[in-house]
């Protein structure tokens, strides 16, 4: 079966996202060992995590503007090169300050991935396919998270923890080669069917100025929703291995199957969430109605996270976390798709950058709060209560502040 040009590129986006999250997870997998080696406090660890989030938040605004101005090919490649080099640099870090500097550089480079990927999907896919295409490449985040706990402990124990950073960082340079020889702009891609390109173009509203876009009610609402809901994912990314280690006595070498279970469920949620709204659109629902219905389902499933802190059994906790992660990924696929529904492709990078800055800002607040709560109480229960409610709050705000959205399909 011949794969279309759009799906060839989407497969590359899937692998870039996989590598992105693999590189991002190395620290969280090794955190118990490194925290013991360098005697980090919970607060110091939260500062290291926050260093990544600050640079990531600043980076998404910069890369979003660069992507809209100069296009995807070179800006994406430069970002991948930066985050790959920064990932490898962790091997040479000494103490909390050194790791914070490496994390800051990693975040700056990794900030390119999602604005570039969402922009590319907007350029190559019609509205009826965007949520599924977004869910597909976003599933790479969970594949990276699945591979990490299986691969990282093996490398660390076999060759030393430094090599876990070096070898995973090197993967980005391999991806760059395939990206550079495969990607073409839609105008220069002979594989893109002209009628499809015309359909995508007709679905896109006329472009507006930067100020008109950023200060629209829809953009500000999406920023608020992501500020509230995205921190859940940051929390799982950086604190889940520590949660399992500290509350369920799961060693670094035994993290593999619990984390694999969580992220396999998350992968299913990513694909199912995107496919569900695409299915509803094909069945005749309006684009925004389909997105909202899918988001509500995800928000209700996300409430399961509230119970994690009160469960003693390891695998029951793992399943609840996995379902919450699935809800997040389905939620994200539809939020990203909504952005591509509303804005023209030459503005998507900017909108994604501003919205992601808001999301990361929420993540920074939650990371610092988590460090303080754990230092004071030693308990994760209240944190899981907070993150479990965020999606329903986000859904309520979205539907109240924006009851309807003018999209290209009704």
Automatic annotation (TrEMBL):
The chain crosses the membrane at residues 6-22, 43-62, 74-93, 136-157, 163-181, 260-281, 293-311, 317-339, 351-374, 380-398. One of its GO terms (cellular component) is membrane. It is found in: Membrane. It is a multi-pass membrane protein. Residues 9-406 form the Major facilitator superfamily (MFS) profile domain. This is MFS transporter. Keywords: Membrane, Transmembrane, Transmembrane helix. GO terms for molecular function: hexuronate transmembrane transporter activity. InterPro entries: MFS (IPR011701), MFS_dom (IPR020846), MFS_Na/Anion_cotransporter (IPR050382), MFS_trans_sf (IPR036259).
């Amino acid at each position: 079966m011949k794969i279309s040009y759009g799906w060839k590129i989407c497969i590359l986006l899937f692998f870039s996202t996989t590598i992105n999250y693999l590189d991002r997870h190395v620290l969280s997998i090794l955190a118990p060992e490194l925290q013991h080696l360098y005697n980090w406090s919970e607060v110091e660890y939260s500062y290291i995590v926050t260093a990544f989030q600050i640079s990531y938040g600043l980076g998404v605004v910069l890369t979003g503007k660069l992507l809209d101005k100069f296009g995807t090919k070179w800006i994406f490649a430069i970002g991948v090169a930066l985050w790959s080099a920064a990932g490898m640099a962790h091997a040479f870090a000494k103490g909390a300050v050194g790791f914070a500097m490496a994390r800051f550089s990693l975040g700056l480079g990794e900030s390119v991935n999602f604005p570039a990927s969402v922009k590319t999907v907007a350029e190559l896919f019609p509205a009826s396919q965007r949520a599924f295409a977004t869910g597909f490449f976003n599933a790479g985040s969970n594949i990276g998270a699945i591979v990490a706990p299986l691969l990282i402990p093996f490398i660390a124990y076999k060759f030393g923890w430094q090599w876990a950073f070096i070898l995973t960082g090197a993967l980005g340079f391999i991806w760059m080669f395939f990206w550079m020889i495969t990607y073409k702009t839609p105008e220069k891609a002979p594989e893109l069917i002209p009628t499809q390109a015309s359909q995508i173009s007709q679905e896109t509203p006329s472009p507006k100025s930067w100020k008109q876009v950023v200060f629209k009610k829809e953009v500000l609402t999406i920023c608020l929703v992501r500020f509230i809901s995205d921190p859940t994912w940051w929390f799982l990314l950086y604190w889940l291995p520590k949660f399992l280690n500290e509350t369920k006595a799961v060693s670094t070498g035994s993290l593999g199957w619990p984390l694999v279970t969580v992220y396999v469920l998350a992968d299913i949620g990513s694909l199912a969430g995107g496919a569900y709204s695409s299915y509803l659109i094909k069945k005749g629902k309006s684009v925004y109605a389909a997105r909202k219905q899918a988001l509500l389902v995800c928000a209700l499933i996300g409430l399961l996270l509230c119970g994690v802190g009160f469960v003693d059994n390891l695998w029951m906790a793992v399943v609840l976390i996995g379902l919450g992660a699935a809800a997040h990924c389905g939620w994200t696929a539809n939020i990203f798709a909504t952005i591509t529904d509303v804005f023209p492709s030459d503005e998507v990078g900017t909108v994604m950058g501003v919205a992601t800055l808001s999301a990361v800002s929420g993540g920074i607040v939650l990371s610092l709060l988590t460090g303080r709560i754990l230092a004071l109480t030693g308990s994760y229960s209240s944190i899981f209560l907070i993150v479990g409610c965020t999606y329903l709050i986000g859904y309520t705000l979205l539907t109240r502040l924006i009851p309807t959205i003018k999209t290209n399909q009704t």
